[in-house]
Amino acid sequence: MLKPRKILRIGISIGDIHGVGPELVIRAFNETKLKDLCTPIIYGSSRVLNHYRKLLKVEKFSYNVIQEPSQAHPKKVSVVECISGTDEVEPGIPSPAAGLAAFEALAAAVKDLKAGELDALVTLPIDKTTIQNKDFKFPGHTEYLASEFGVEENLMLMVGEDMRMGVVTGHLPLKDVAGAISQQKVYTKIRLMHEALKLDFGIERPKIAVLGLNPHAGDHGLIGKEDSERIQKAVEQAFNNKMMVLGPFPADGFFQSGQFVEFDGILAMYHDQGLIPFKLVSGFEGTNYTAGLPVIRTSPDHGVAYSLAGKGYANLESLNHAIYTAIDVYRNRHDFQEIEEGSLWKMKSKERDRGRGKPGVADRQEREVLAVQDDGFDYEDSVGLGEEE
């Protein structure tokens, strides 16, 4: 079971040092009370932070330089010096040196996350072009972290106040999306979302909507068969495994009608199908969360924003929410595990299951399907709900 510290250690990789990452760190911990909620440990460079502090005319931004997380002081900002190539800091200018610095900061933070020295990791934006090197040949943070932690399947889950949006295919060219959609892949993403909503977000019986791939969700095969032959079958498979899932929905009508507010999670088929409505609804309050990892990782839902770097205009809300989300997920995981492993749970489980073996996954699934039936949820009634004519 997770053993929470009194104040959680949140690692923050500085991202591209020519983007908005460094100034967001300075402003976030200078203007807000975030450091009262956690022990922030910045993986980067004091020289880079000092450059931006002077550029932004921030007179007081105090921090401690440390060698390892155990040296961090609660409620104070700490900086782990771990990057090279900081001789010239040029806000707004992409460069290989800035990309290397972003990778070094990320790698150092991941090392400490693996060692259990951090409770969660918040990654600031990278330039996916300049960061490429022999040790980072990935389209983004998500794929790199999945590789580092040996996870075959994961889910990019965008989290906001009014919407949680996952995607089946992430950083993939549009021309390759249809070929990447399979029943098994869609089902796996549904399962990962279901598990994350329960374990990480504390939703006891999550209700999930699945979007179609083609216009009108294929219109019964007239505009593509992926929806009926792959996506709908994945939805049926999930329902048969005791998950409350509806779909596939035509994406345009689903958002136009406001149906999205009825669901705890929404699964889109590709990046822009999900992220465009998510960002329209959530604005700068969105957080990128990687579900399916054994560790907790969040990120702001925006990029390096070179045009804003060093000007003091970049919005802080997404970083703030990324930190809040990391803390909340950690606590939810701890609470869930405490219930699962606690004496009260074991006592009730033994009473309930006396005479039929130890409680396990099957028992929990049985309770979930009973809950689904109690809610009057019926898959056959759900198919095609909300389709356009």
Question: What is the N-to-C order of secondary-structure elements (H for helix, E for strand)?
Answer: EHEHEEHEHEEHHEHEHEHEEHHHH
Q: Between the first and last Cα atoms, what is the distance in angstroms?
A: 51 Å
The assigned structural class equals alpha/beta
The first-level CATH class name of the largest domain: Alpha Beta
| Whole-angstrom Rg | 22 Å
Question: What is the CATH architecture descriptor of the largest domain?
Answer: 3-Layer(aba) Sandwich
Average pLDDT works out at 87
Helix content estimate: 40-55%
Helical stretch count? 13
- Regarding quaternary structure, what we see is single chain
Reported for the largest beta sheet, the result is: 12 strands, mixed
